C-alpha cells in the first residue's frame, strides 16, 4: 500500500534537488534510496544499490553504449564528418537550399556513425556553421538546421536512445535499431521539403552555389568510402543478424580507429580527447541509470508502479488516447530533462500497461524516442540549442530558437504520421526478422 505522505515527499525531494541543479542521476539516487530505506531499511537499501551497480557494470548489452559513443567520437576526429559534408555540398550545393540541404544529408550519414544527438549537433556546429555563414545563409536558418538535424542521430541506428530504451523495456535492441531507419529518413526528407519550400519563397535565405563539375563531384566521393564501409558493417551486420549491437559497436569503434590511423589523424592528444569524451558521456548515462534503477525499485516496493499501471489499464479511454496523454507528458519532461532520464522515469510505468492494452512495443518505442527528440529542440530548455550555443557563442538563443521553429513544426507533423501509421515504425523490423 502506498504511504499517504511518503511518496509525495520522495517525489518532492527529486524536484527540489533538480531545482538546485543537482544532476538528475544523483537526485534520483538520493531520493530513491531514502524512500527505499523508509520501507526496507538501510542495510537492504545499501545491498540493493550494490547489486544495481554490479548489474550495470557487468551488463553485456550496456557495453554497446560506450562503444558506439567511442566510434562516433573517433569518426569525427578522423575527418569523416568533413568528407561527408564536402561530398553533400558538391552534389547538392547548386539546388535551392544549397549548403542547408547538404548539412541535412550529411547529418543523416553521420548519424549512422555516431548515435549521440548532442555529439552530432556539436560536430556540425563546428563544421557546417562557419561554411553557412561564409556563404551568407540566413543565420536563423543555419542555426535551426544544425540544432535540429543533430536529433537524427537519436533515431537512425546506432541510436544510443534506442539502445537504452531496449535495455529498460527489455525489447530486442536489433529490432529497435532497424525500426529507427524509416522514421529517421522520413524526418530528414521532411526537413528537405520544408527547406526547399522556404528557400523557393526567399532565395536569399540560402544562395545556391555554382554547380560543381563532374570531376569535382567524383573527387568529393573519395573520402566517403570510409563512411560507407563503417555504416555498412555496423547497420548491415545488425540487419543481417550476423552480429549483435554490442559486437557492432566494437567493430565500428575498431573500424573508426583504423580509418583515423590510415588518415594519419591519430595522436596521443586525439586519443586522450576521444577516450575522455567517451568516458564523460558514458559516466553521465550510467549515473542516471543507477539513480533511475534505485528510484524505480522504490516505486515498485512502495506499490506506486503497480497502482499507476492498474489505474492506466482501468481508464475508460482508448489505447491511442492514453498514448497521446503519454506523449504530452514526454514533451513537457523532454523540454527540461535529457531523453535518457525521461525514459528511465516513465518507460517502466507507462509502457507495460500500454503494451497490455494492445500497443505495439516497437511502434511505442519509436513514438517515445521521436517525442523526446522534439523535446531536445523545444523551449524553455531545448538541450540541443544550448549545445549549439556552446559551440558557436556568436549565436544568441533567440536566433537559435527562432530558426528551430520551422523544423519543430516538421518534427510534430512527422510524429503525428508515426502515431497514426504504425507501419512506418514496424514494417522494416517485421520484414527483416520475419521467420
Description:
The chain is mainly α and 435 residues long. It has one domain. It is 77% helix and 0% strand. The protein has 22 helices and no strands. Helix 1 (6-19) packs antiparallel against helix 2 and helix 17 (319-334) packs parallel to helix 19. It is globular, with a radius of gyration of 22 Å. The mean pLDDT is 85.
Into which percentage range does the β-strand content fall? under 5%
In whole angstroms, the N-to-C terminal distance is 44 Å
Structural class: mainly alpha
Proportion of helical residues: over 70%
What's the structural domain tally?
A: 1
Summarize the structure.
By secondary structure, this protein is mainly alpha-helical.
Question: What is the element layout, followed by pairings?
Answer:
Elements: H1 6-19, H2 24-40, H3 42-58, H4 64-77, H5 80-92, H6 98-111, H7 117-134, H8 139-149, H9 160-169, H10 173-179, H11 181-201, H12 214-220, H13 225-240, H14 245-262, H15 268-302, H16 304-314, H17 319-334, H18 339-356, H19 361-375, H20 383-391, H21 397-420, H22 423-432
Task: Label this structure with key terms.
435 residues; mainly alpha; globular
Amino acid at each position: 500500500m502506498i504511504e499517504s505522505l511518503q511518496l509525495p515527499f520522495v517525489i518532492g525531494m527529486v524536484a527540489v534537488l533538480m531545482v538546485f541543479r543537482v544532476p538528475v542521476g544523483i537526485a534520483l539516487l538520493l531520493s530513491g534510496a531514502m524512500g527505499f530505506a523508509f520501507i526496507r531499511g538501510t542495510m537492504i537499501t545499501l545491498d540493493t544499490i550494490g547489486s544495481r551497480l554490479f548489474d550495470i557494470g557487468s551488463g553485456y548489452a550496456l557495453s554497446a553504449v560506450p562503444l558506439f559513443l567511442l566510434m562516433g567520437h573517433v569518426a569525427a576526429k578522423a575527418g569523416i564528418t568533413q568528407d561527408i559534408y564536402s561530398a553533400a555540398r558538391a552534389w547538392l550545393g547548386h539546388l535551392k537550399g544549397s549548403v542547408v540541404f547538404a548539412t541535412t544529408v550529411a547529418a543523416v550519414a553521420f548519424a549512422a556513425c555516431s548515435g549521440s544527438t548532442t555529439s552530432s549537433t556539436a560536430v556540425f556546429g563546428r563544421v557546417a556553421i562557419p561554411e553557412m555563414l561564409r556563404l551568407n545563409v540566413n543565420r536563423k536558418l543555419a542555426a535551426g538546421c544544425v540544432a535540429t538535424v543533430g536529433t537524427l542521430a537519436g533515431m537512425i541506428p546506432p541510436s544510443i536512445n534506442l539502445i537504452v530504451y531496449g535495455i529498460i523495456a527489455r525489447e530486442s535492441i536489433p529490432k529497435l535499431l532497424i525500426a529507427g531507419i524509416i522514421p529517421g529518413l522520413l524526418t530528414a526528407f521532411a526537413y528537405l521539403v520544408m527547406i526547399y519550400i522556404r528557400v523557393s519563397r526567399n532565395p536569399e535565405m540560402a544562395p545556391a552555389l555554382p554547380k560543381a563539375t563532374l570531376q569535382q563531384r567524383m573527387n568529393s566521393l573519395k573520402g566517403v568510402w570510409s563512411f560507407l564501409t563503417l555504416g555498412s558493417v555496423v547497420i548491415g551486420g545488425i540487419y543481417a543478424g550476423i552480429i549483435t549491437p554490442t559486437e557492432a559497436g566494437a567493430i565500428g569503434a575498431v573500424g573508426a580507429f583504423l580509418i583515423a590511423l590510415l588518415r594519419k589523424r591519430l595522436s596521443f592528444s586525439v586519443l586522450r580527447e576521444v577516450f575522455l569524451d567517451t568516458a564523460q558521456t558514458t559516466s553521465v548515462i550510467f549515473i542516471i541509470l543507477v539513480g533511475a534503477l534505485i528510484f524505480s525499485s522504490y516505486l515498485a516496493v512502495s506499490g506506486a508502479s503497480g497502482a499507476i499501471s492498474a489505474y492506466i489499464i482501468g481508464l475508460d479511454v482508448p489505447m491511442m488516447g492514453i498514448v497521446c496523454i503519454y506523449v504530452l507528458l514526454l514533451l513537457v519532461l523532454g523540454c527540461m530533462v535529457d531523453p535518457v532520464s525521461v525514459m528511465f522515469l516513465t518507460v517502466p510505468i507507462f509502457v507495460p500497461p500500454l503494451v497490455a492494452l494492445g500497443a505495439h512495443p516497437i511502434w511505442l518505442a519509436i513514438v517515445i524516442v521521436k517525442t523526446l527528440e522534439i523535446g531536445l529542440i523545444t523551449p524553455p530548455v531545448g538541450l540541443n540549442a544550448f549545445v549549439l550555443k556552446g559551440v558557436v557563442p556568436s549565436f544568441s538563443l533567440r536566433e537559435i530558437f527562432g530558426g528551430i521553429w520551422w523544423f519543430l513544426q516538421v518534427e510534430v507533423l512527422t510524429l503525428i504520421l508515426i502515431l497514426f501509421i504504425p507501419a512506418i515504425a514496424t514494417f522494416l523490423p517485421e520484414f527483416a526478422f520475419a521467420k
